[in-house]
């Protein structure tokens, strides 16, 4: 049910799904290896679940997806109340995209110029990095149809055919990354799978590495951390030979794969592996020598530091995140990275009851990208916590209540 229940807290969803399964609090507590009091406090909102691996296990025991438990997806609307996600879903699930044999009509493939689609795709990537998610979603259905047309027109192993599949891979990667940001994890995985299939056909090592990065994003969004770790590490090892020439794009993709796998390791509470993977990304960043944006990665020493802080937060090192994170000023990085860091910092500050600072962090991030903030399940949980802590006098005209309304964080 799209948009249903976004005002519920995670604890309220735990209670709903527990009752639907016919479990008592005591039985769920036993399945989780916790006390009945722990479950009771979670459901009443007196205790927060701050570790993503615990949320994943709760979802598993309740037999729902992680996104169900987080209340995703909600109805995506931009400032003009447009919601084009259904159009993106229709384009992804078009039967014509399933089989070139069945839907080719027996006609020779038609030549389609790749470059206009490539230019539009890169412009959409730029908009994504600027935090303009609504504009990207409005473009995706058309880009997906163009990508399918490019694939149908690709013939043999000509340079044109390989280029067509490479462009299609970029379109589907953008689709996967954008959908994961707005809570559409299942659709994101479909798009990531299509990206990797197209990249295979392109015979372009960097296109495949980029598509694998999309796969890790989708798997992380679904709470499938072991699979994300396996995919990212496999792709990084596979593309290692591409680093010998010092290609900055190859270094950036290689480093980003290790950053995404480090996040996966942190979310499954594997501190040693997290440290090792961050170390691999560090080496790539040192070789690159600067903060770049090759293949829209935003990769470099600063992005490694942001991922180190994000991983530390997932590992529970909240004091470290607050101390180090407030000294980081990633204003030269893409807006999407700036906002993601701000959300991490707000989450950490709220855990230490530094509510005013957390609110200021979110309001500043909202100024940069309203859509990334308002459609984040993490933001909704932080905002609910801040609102519960707020004094009664902090009424409906307060900045906090305004953010609550804009994020649809409360019923």
Automatic annotation (TrEMBL):
What keywords are assigned to this protein?
A: DNA-binding
What cellular component terms from Gene Ontology apply here?
cytosol
User: What PROSITE patterns does the annotation carry?
Assistant: HTH_CROC1 (PS50943)
Q: Which PANTHER family does the record match to this protein?
A: HTH-TYPE TRANSCRIPTIONAL REGULATOR, METHYLPHOSPHONATE SYNTHASE
Q: Which Gene3D superfamilies match?
A: lambda repressor-like DNA-binding domains
Q: Which InterPro entries match?
A: Cro/C1-type_HTH, Lambda_DNA-bd_dom_sf, TransReg_Diox_bact_type
Q: Protein name, please? A: Predicted transcriptional regulator
One GO molecular function term of this record is: DNA-binding transcription factor activity
Which SMART domains does the UniProt record give? HTH_XRE
Record flagged with keyword DNA-binding? yes
User: Which branch of life, at top level?
Assistant: Bacteria
- Pinpoint the HTH cro/C1-type domain residues: 14-69
Q: DNA-binding: is it a keyword of this entry?
A: yes
Q: Which organism is it from?
A: Saccharomonospora viridis (strain ATCC 15386 / DSM 43017 / JCM 3036 / CCUG 5913 / NBRC 12207 / NCIMB 9602 / P101)
